[in-house]
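Researcher: Let's try something more involved. This one mixes different molecule types, so please make sure each is placed in the same coordinate frame as the others.
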Amino acid sequence: METIINAENISYFYDEETKKYVFKDLSLKVEKGSFVAVLGHNGSGKSTLAKHFNAILQPTEGKVYVNSMDTLDEDKLLEIRKDVGMVFQNPDNQIVATIVEDDVAFAPENLGVPHDELVIRVRDALKAVSMENFSDKAPHQLSGGQKQRVAIAGIIAMQPDCIVLDEATAMLDPKGRREVMEVVRRLNREMGITVVFITHYMEEAANADRVVVMDSGKIVLDGSPKEVFTQVETLKSIGLDVPQVTYLSYLLRGTKLELPKDILTASECADAILKLLEEKK
Amino acid sequence: MLSNITIGQYYPGSSPVHKLDPRTKILITVLYIVMLFAAAEVIGLLPGIIFFILSYIISGVPLKMIFRSLKPIIPLIVFTAVLNLFFVGNDVIFEFWIIKITGEGLRFSIFMIVRIIALIAGTSLLTYTTTPIMLTDGLESLLSPLKKLKFPVHELSMMMTIALRFIPTLIEETSKIMSAQKARGADLESGGLLKRAKALIPILIPLFVSAFRRAEELALAMESRCYHGGEGRTRLRELHFKLRDIISLLITALFLASVFVLNSL
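Model: All components are placed in one shared frame. Result:
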């Protein structure tokens, strides 16, 4: 598999004087077309790490490569940001224009995309996030989830290889979170866009192909959701929750019920319990 | 309540006036102002007034909108009228105690009133028929020659766009902060002017702090979307002069010419 983001032994600190590292000697590779969830608490360094992926921040030590371009290379800045789009937490603070379609056009306008193609890109991007009926609305007329989908459309219009969502669902209600998650999954599956999903919601991370768990600047766990969420003790020790169903089966296993360790969804859990009951008969 | 805030005073419609290129409308408005100020006598205002009435009829903007635009300047109109009425000219036609009204004063104050009303009512037609975003685009395009003089035209229009974008957001935020402070026992409604102004401080400070935070995040989001100034930018909304723009400009020019003809009579 081709690597799209490659962070090699990177270290970073905000303050030059105190040299308090957010993370030190951290390495992470993201494969093209994958869906990676990065989990972690506030202050675990996950957002700081995300900002390295499109050269908003540059590592104090080590290198970050995006499609083999060094993020320290000033000349490649636009190309890197075109390849890796970023969606932020607050939907209100990332919409620039007063009309939805103008906002979606913002990034390709900056890239100098000719007018005729611009029109097509905006239309397609809005369709990709199912917001085509809102193209002439003002941002303040939309719900949180809709605004966040517009923000995603604004990134898709750049035709990026990868989208980084930095806690993009943190300020949304459950409905908005579902909407955004659905859109992101579809983009990953149908358009082959690589997704890096920064979050602290376990249920969202369970949708990914790969879960990376961070704690105080270190990668603690890295693997498929099943591999990661079965580490209930490790997750609990760094103060993270596991999906409720996984936790339930963990507790049931404690009562000597022979449930499999890798249960992630309610239906899996129900099936396993049913099977167990039938065996007991 | 907040979801249907209208920014500016745009009156939606699809009249020929609405459809004109914003640049044309801005130019016509400038010519219209020249028309009013070039007039030397009451009669010279006639073309301007006819032009204004015709534009209003074509635009389909209701009459009450004109009055709404005039309301805030009523004190100014009265002040100007009184000043001119009593202190201009020598040919007294009416005298009572210390009040003297002259023929010239009367003529001049009518002239001034008509001119101010026509000026305000006419220019507000521009904002009634053009969305703020179109106005911004139009201004940016009209001012673009100034780029050669290093005048930051694109930056200015970007600032205007962002201001327009954030007005509803900040209004919403203000009402939230006010509710929050009221819930903590802040008294915003009673007391004299000074006390009320002081009561605003706990609202303004959080508002400013959050505005700065928003600005920072917005800058980050814009950078992430490859914003690097106005150079090499294309536009989704391109402006094109059409035949109707040329015709309207020609008609306006004719009206302006007629003012000069009337002046020379």
